[in-house]
User: Fold these one by one.
Assistant:
Number 1:
Amino acid sequence: GSSLLTGPEGLMAKERENLKRLKCLRRYRQRYGVEALLHRQLKERRMLATDSAAQQAHTTRSSQRCLAFVDDVRCSNPSLPMTRHCLAHICQDTNQTLFRPCQGSEEVPCNKPVPVSLSEEPCCPLHLRLPPQMYVPEQALAVPEELEAAPTDLYLSAAELQPTESLPLEFSD
């Protein structure tokens, strides 16, 4: 449609002015000359930097293993992000502050790493101390012996429970 409107024949002055504005608005945000060249070079540099950084991060992350040694054998677990130790050996890192070893109990010592929380002594789920029970069940009421041995003649049999008279249909269940 724009090729039909480009010719000056048949267009009034107001239409030509509107067409000129429309063409200017189409090019408003485009870069030209030196600005376009610098912008393209900047985009290429950013793409190269992000691609190489992503590849480098991928290769280093996939090759990072835990630095801890167990019985003179290096741990084969992958390290946690931004650290050099796995979850089992993170407490060996002296610079970290996010994990502490579980204190365990006197009978069963435990050195499992536990995330530091708001409590002063973080524990693993095995050694977690539960708060005291808030609900105390009431003591069972003592039932006198005379009520326990109730006579059975107070209860009606199934035959005695049958209705003796027939009720009209609208009153029956």
Note: The longest strand covers residues 99-101.
Number 2:
Amino acid sequence: QPELGKPMRNCYSLPGPDFTYGMYMHKRDGGVPEAIGHWDSVKAKPHKRVMPRDFVAMGRAAVGEGCTTAREFALYYKFKDIRCKDKQILRYGCKVPPGVTFGRPPRPPTPFFDVMQHRYKEMWMEHQRARTVVQHVVKKKVGMIGEVRENRTTFLRTHPLPRKEESFWHPQRFQKVWAPHSPSQHQRQLSW
């Protein structure tokens, strides 16, 4: 029976104070001090990449040497081995060529005192004033000359269209009726 107000005890005995709980790493494990104090860097091994053969360059060189038959070309390829050039500048373990800069160049810094003194606002206001002066001068020149660009409305005001004479409306069937010129035509119409 458990004691009153206390949890029930288990039957297992705990190990001593020198016991470590969890899994122990048998490699080099110095804990947090080693992780903070010593940066574990891995040195890159020199990786030599074998490039494929450049048959275009070998064929060009063989023709330059005077090879004409397939046997001569095969012998030339056997004794002269030209490889393709590596187009990638950087590979794992390669050195960066001098003068190469990566990334985008930084934008020029904004002068802080110009921002504080509202210099950009003043420049914009001067630009707007100059633009207004130019527009005013152009408007005066147009007013002095007196030439206004003519559009359809002004043209029709100066040259009105001729008025159409009003005619009474006649039905379509009475449009082609002949006026009787002689009694013979009149008789023909009556006979129809």
Note: The mean pLDDT is 78.
